[in-house]
Amino acid sequence: MNDPHLLYQVKDGVACFTINRENQRNAISMEALDLFLAHIDEAVKNDAVRAVCVTGAGSRTFCAGADLGAGIGGSEGVAAFMKYAKLLKKLTGFPKPTVAKVNGSCVAGGTGFMLACDIVIASSKATFGTPEVNVGLFPMMIGALIFRNVLRKKAMEMVLLGEKLSARQALEMGMITRMVDPDDLDAEAEKVLNVLVKKSPIGMKIGKEAFYAVADMPFEQALDLLAGKLSDVVVTQDAREGIMAFLEKREPVFTGK
């Protein structure tokens, strides 16, 4: 579905969300948040969707964060902040694998979208950062994700200085998982997504839920929960199919059951 704020397309098992405000550096509008929230719920329910890709229109910007010209200081701004937080929760806890394809500058709220995804593939020319401090703000909601992905001291340096970081620096900090030549970005993302759509939907759903649940648990409690979740996985039809396919030396056919 095409819209001036967000493009949504399902093709070959992949639901692609494209922030569609290239002339505004793909800044997030209230309309884009509403559309994102609606379509992400659709993607959960659609069995044809096996994986999700999040990207920005054009080749210069992934996402510049909130639209600073949209009156974020008023009551509408508070509503937008809450919707953005809700979207980060949904994207982080999404039951299917998610991939961020970072085609250009990724700053402020765009960092939240990126870090909420399981895998982040970025152009070597992409840049990153949290410049909120430079305009008297602070990266609040995305901080919950930054501190779960980046070592605390490096995270504090990034948010306090507000400096622009290169793709190489982002890779070394653990913010992105792959860095590729700009000309190879689409092909690399497609390759990864094509692998993901062939995996067991039910196995990945249970696995992602488990990993998300144990993120802040004590070690022994986490092990107990994970043992129980493994028991849930091994009794699925997909697990039986995967084991049989391995023994028979063939590709498994997963149905999500």
Summarize the structure.
With 257 residues, the protein is α/β, with parallel strands linked by helices. The chain has two domains: 6-196, 2-enoyl-CoA Hydratase, Chain A, domain 1, CATH 3.90.226; 201-247. It has ten helices and ten strands.
Could you characterize what this model shows?
The chain has 257 residues and is α/β, with parallel strands linked by helices. It has 2 domains: 6-196, 2-enoyl-CoA Hydratase, Chain A, domain 1; 201-247. Helix content is 46%, strand content 16%. It has helices at residues 30-45, 75-92, 109-116, 143-149, 152-161, 167-173, 185-196, 201-213, 219-234, 237-247, and strands at residues 6-11, 14-19, 51-56, 61-63, 98-102, 105-107, 119-123, 127-129, 165-166, 178-180. The strands form 2 sheets. The chain has a 6-stranded mixed beta sheet, sandwiched between helices. It has a 4-stranded mixed beta sheet with strand order 4-6-8-9. A hairpin with a 2-residue loop joins strand 1 (6-11) and strand 2. The protein starts with 5 loop residues before the first strand and ends in a 10-residue tail after the last helix. The model has no long low-confidence stretch (mean pLDDT 90).
Q: What is the CATH C level class of the largest domain, in words?
A: Alpha Beta
Q: Radius of gyration, Cα only, in angstroms?
A: 19 Å
- How many runs of DSSP E, i.e. beta strands? 10
Major sheet characteristics: 6 strands, mixed
- Helical/strand content category: alpha/beta
Give the helices and strands as they follow along the chain. Answer: EEHEEHEEHEEHHEHEHHHH
Cα separation of the termini: 29 Å
Strand order across the biggest sheet?
1-2-3-5-7-10
Helical residue percent band: 40-55%
CATH superfamily of the largest domain: 2-enoyl-CoA Hydratase, Chain A, domain 1
- Strand-residue proportion: 15-25%
Count of distinct structural domains: 2
Based on the coordinates given, report the CATH architecture of the largest domain: Alpha-Beta Complex
Number of helices: 10
What general outline do the C-alpha atoms trace?
globular
Low-pLDDT parts are: none
Mean pLDDT: 90
CATH topology of the largest domain: 2-enoyl-CoA Hydratase, Chain A, domain 1
